[in-house]
Amino acid sequence: MNNDFTFTIKHSLFDENYNPSENTRITTNFANLARGENRQQNLRNTLKMIDNRFNNLAYWDNPQGDRYSVELDIISVEMHIAGTAFPAIEILKTNIIDKKTNERIEGIVGNNFSSYVRDYDFSVLLLEHNKHRTEFTIPENFGDLHGNIFKHFVNSAEYKAQFKKPPVICLSVSNKNAYQQTGNQHPVLGIEYQQHGTSLTEHYFSKMGLKVRYFMPKNSVAPLAFFFTGDLLSDYSDLELIGTISTMETFQKIYRPEIYNANSAAGLHYQPNLSQQDHSLTKIVYDREERSRLAIEQGKFTEEHFIKPYKHILEQWSADYAL
What we know:
By secondary structure, the protein is α+β, with helices and mostly antiparallel strands. The protein contains 9 helices and 10 strands. It has helices at residues 39-57, 116-129, 144-154, 157-162, 200-206, 238-255, 257-260, 288-307, 311-321, and strands at residues 6-14, 68-81, 84-98, 103-115, 168-172, 179-186, 190-195, 211-216, 224-228, 269-270. It has a 10-stranded mixed sheet.
C-alpha cells in the first residue's frame, strides 16, 4: 500500500522577484515578505542579510567578505492519494555560488519546514483535544500520520532522484524551555547547548525520524535547533552547514527578533523570552499575527480536504507503514 502514495516535486526560485502562487503553502514564512508595497525591498534586504551572514562565517580565502552568494529554491511537494493531489510539504533548498571559482555548490535541502498536516495537528486537532481539559495532554498517536508521510517522502524515488543527502530542518529554540551549554564546540555550528527536558516540537519531529541538536554559531546571540538523521557534524560540508545557518538565522531575526536579534548573547544557561524588550528590529516588514491566523485556516483546510475525505485510507496506510 505504501507504493500507492507518490509525490510531485516543484521548484520555485526565492529571489527579489518572487511572487507567491495562489496555491502555495507556507504559513506566510515567505509569502508574507513578498506582499505589500515593500515586497521587493523586503526580499532584497532578506537575501542581502543571508549573503552577508554566509560570508561572515565562510571568512577563509574571502578577504573582502563577498566571495559567496546563496540561492534559495522553494521545494513544494504534492502527495497523490486516490487520484487527487494534496500539498503535503514545503521546504527550502540552498545553493551556494562561489564567485571566485564560478562554481555552483549544492546546499542542504530542508531548512525551513512547512506542512499542511502539521497545521492541522497543532492548530485544529491539539486545540480541540484540549478545549475543555484543565490539564494539557497530547492526543493518542499524535504526529504518527504526519511523521509517516515525511519518512515516506524522504525515502521515495522522487526525493532520491533530486536530492543527494537527507534533509536538515533548522528551527527556533522553544521559548518554554531552558538550555545549557555542554562544553562542546564545532568550528562552524558553534557552541552546543542541551535542552532541559523535551519539547512538543522535539516529540513531533521524532515521529518524522529526526533527532535534534542545539548550536549557537559564531556571532549569533541564541542557539538554533537542527533536526536531522545520520550525523549532522560529519554528513555535511562546512559550506553546506553555513548555507543553512545563514538562511535560517536571517529568517529567525525577522520572525523572532526578541530571541535572534537580541542585543545580548545567550550565556551558559539560557531561557528564550519572547517578551524580552532589549532587541533590535530589522528593516523587513513581517506580519506575525497573520502567520498564526493562517496556520488555523490552513489546518481547517487540511481537515476538510484531506483528513476527513481520506480518513480510512490514511489510517490504514499509516498503520501498515509502521509495521
